[in-house]
Amino acid sequence: MQANKKIDISQIKVIQAPLAGISDVVFRGLVRKYQSKCLMTTEMISSEMLCNNPNPRIIQFEDFEYPLAFQLVGHKIDKMTNAAKIIAPFASMIDINCGCPVKKVVVSGDGSAMMKTPELACEIVQSIKEATKLPVSAKFRLGWTHDEENFIEFGKALEKAGVCFVTLHARTRSQMYSGNANWNKIKLLKQELSIPVFANGDIKTIEDAKNCLELTKCDGISIGRGIMGDFSLPYRIEKYIEKGIVIPEPNLTQRIEMLKEHLKLEVQHMGEKNGIKFMRKFYNYYIASTRNASKYRSALVTLDKEEEILKILDEILSLHTENN
Predict the structure, then answer these.
(1) Which domain holds residue 224?
(2) Beta-bridge partners for 45
(3) Active-site position among 51, 98, 100, 164
(4) pTM (predicted TM-score)
């Protein structure tokens, strides 16, 4: 790996947020293809898994991805530190996951369960910084429940521990991904911290990013699910932040072509069987705006041959062209 790992935190305005089981090396590569200069982030990497298997498929990456953050999840100081040392030669920085709400993650004290142990989270940050000499950031939620919101105290503790920035997903753990992200809470956190604060949650369009930035006065945007079905979104938000330019979102034809390329690359990366299985979670994001989208999605998720899928996509394009 000969990529330039250097990172200038002050220049970061958009972050491609980690999405477990989604934002693989192909996903990240497509974000770059659509011209974004955002900070890329790997999928969530288990420190336990990495210490047991130092070369898993999940840490595949390419030179063009840089600057590239590696996100680690775990609650054991020694495991997190050792995992950080394994990836340090390849990482521009390390992000600590204190926000994943999934039961199998939090049951062991990882992810958003870390918000219950802020002292431990701070010790992990300090240990990784000392061991790797890399910048360290953290992503977290409002708290465990609405009655246990401690995001301001948690953010202040992490700032004191030495994180270079924080990302706040403006939901509690109990909300999971339901309801609306409360951007007002991001505004409150920004007012309390001197380090950069990035907003995450319910940012799916340039208008969303504009409204979020205006309300919160935060330092930038972290986009996760908003990228699904539109790899141009990070770049378009960057152009809005930099120059106030509003680039139109892709139309259905452009989205279908984007889907075809995504499918082709995942098949090349994983093989036809696994690549197609992986892609099934994406179809609805790409074709949601088409007539009879649910019918087409139901058909697409049953297919296991790339040729058959492309035939359905061409049918969607044909009908879209006729109706326009």
Answers:
(1) 9-243
(2) 72
(3) 100
(4) 0.94
